[in-house]
Write a structure and sequence with these properties.
Structural class: alpha+beta
CATH topology: Beta-lactamase
Number of domains: 1
Largest sheet: 5 strands, antiparallel
CATH class: Alpha Beta
Radius of gyration: 20 Å
Strand content: 5-15%
Strand order of the largest sheet: 1-8-7-6-5
Shape: globular
CATH superfamily: DD-peptidase/beta-lactamase superfamily
CATH architecture: 3-Layer(aba) Sandwich
Helix content: 25-40%
Number of helices: 8
Distance between the termini: 27 Å
């Protein structure tokens, strides 16, 4: 198992709480060593970075092939977190409202119950829309046929599957669904008059200094990390661009740390908007808007820690982007093979152990 792990302390900005002091010198290295020790116990190896400049420590640890945080990876459903920020930006400007039916913004969008489904429902996956995962899988059941380079190109816009019959009444139940975010992307394009790629670049990527990150275009093949299945075959046949608003962002881990930093320090959203985005609903498994937000005890910490989590998976690549907003810390994990991360709220598992090492050093 190979793993890239990046843990970045985030400097405080206007409207943010004063940051926890950055451990100096040997203390910083001790914390990195603790994370490395946990990764070793989990039988994974990788790169570990912990600093206040999103730039240190990681180059000292891990195998040579992972010693740069500049190599691009697919971010999979972390894309949904970025799209959620774009929605809240438009809410701040009065162009969107979270609880207004989407038919008010895109009357020509023929999705089921458009006159009742809201952006909040879409971002919390309670829309009741059909799910692209109900579409046909490829012969090995490793991805959907529609996501393969060698499959016929889908028509422009959201997946035809998303235009099908509703699976549930709006707002009734949680059902994780790529169609939800595809529809959100269509709403954003309609109200801003900009293609989603240009909107994200102008309003988020450029503002956060994420110069090496893009929303991949369908059919585009880029260099960088691919994933691997348990039998060792790579997943280079997956066309990441076809995931669109639901998963097509691609860039280096350092850029993801820049995104977290910009979000936490008020560069992308005002404090009230960020709080709205990160308010987890316990009735929905603590789903918030494009993320999950919950508080859990961690080994070594005297008090429970608030976490804002976004995860993703495409093919053999998995990603975890976890912000501890009260600690000004972000833990970012990329794997290029399947790995059982577990659940932090269960008090065990890979994510729990790594977070304990990052947030609760001895």
């Amino acid at each position: 198992m190979r793993l890239l792990l990046l843990a970045a302390l985030v400097a405080s900005g206007a409207g943010a709480k004063p940051p926890i002091p950055v451990p100096p010198g040997d203390a910083l290295l001790d914390r990195c060593a603790a994370i490395e020790s946990v990764a070793g116990a989990l039988k994974i190896s990788g790169q570990y970075l912990l600093s206040d400049t999103v730039d240190d420590c990681g180059n000292l640890l891990g195998p040579q092939e992972y010693r740069t945080s500049e190599t691009p990876w697919r971010w999979a459903s972390v894309t949904k977190q970025i799209v959620a920020v774009a929605v809240l930006q438009q809410v701040e400007r009065g162009k969107l409202a979270l609880d207004t039916p989407i038919a008010a913004y895109v009357p020509e969008l023929k999705v089921a119950n458009a006159d009742r489904i809201t952006l909040r429902m879409l971002l919390q996956h309670t829309s009741g829309l059909p799910n692209v995962e109900d579409g046909p899988a490829d012969p090995r059941k490793e991805t959907l046929v529609q996501y393969r380079y060698d499959a016929p190109a889908p028509p422009p816009g959201i997946s035809p599957i998303c235009l099908g019959k509703a699976k549930a009444e709006p707002g009734v139940r949680f059902d994780y669904n790529n169609c939800d975010t595809e529809v959100v992307g269509a709403v954003l394009e309609a109200v801003t008059g900009m293609p989603l790629a240009k909107l994200l670049d102008a309003e988020i990527l450029a503002k956060a200094g994420m110069t090496a990150t893009v929303l991949v275009v369908p059919g585009e093949k880029l260099s960088g990390r691919v994933g691997y299945f348990p039998d060792g075959r790579d997943d280079a046949f997956i066309d990441v661009g076809r995931f669109g608003a639901a998963g097509a962002v691609r860039g280096p881990p350092r850029d993801l740390a820049k995104f977290d930093r910009a979000l936490m320090t008020g560069q992308l959203l005002k404090p009230d908007s960020r709080a709205e985005m990160q308010r987890g609903n316990p009735k929905l498994g603590y789903a918030a808007l494009g993320v999950w937000s919950y508080t859990v005890p961690l080994k070594g910490c005297t008090t429970p820690q608030k976490l804002v989590e976004r995860r993703g998976e495409i093919g053999g690549v998995q990603v975890r982007n976890i912000i501890a907003p009260e600690r000004n810390l972000a833990l970012i994990v990329f794997t290029d093979r399947p790995f059982d991360f577990g659940e932090p709220w269960q008090g065990k598992g890979g994510t729990y152990d790594l977070l304990s090492a990052a947030l609760c050093p001895a």
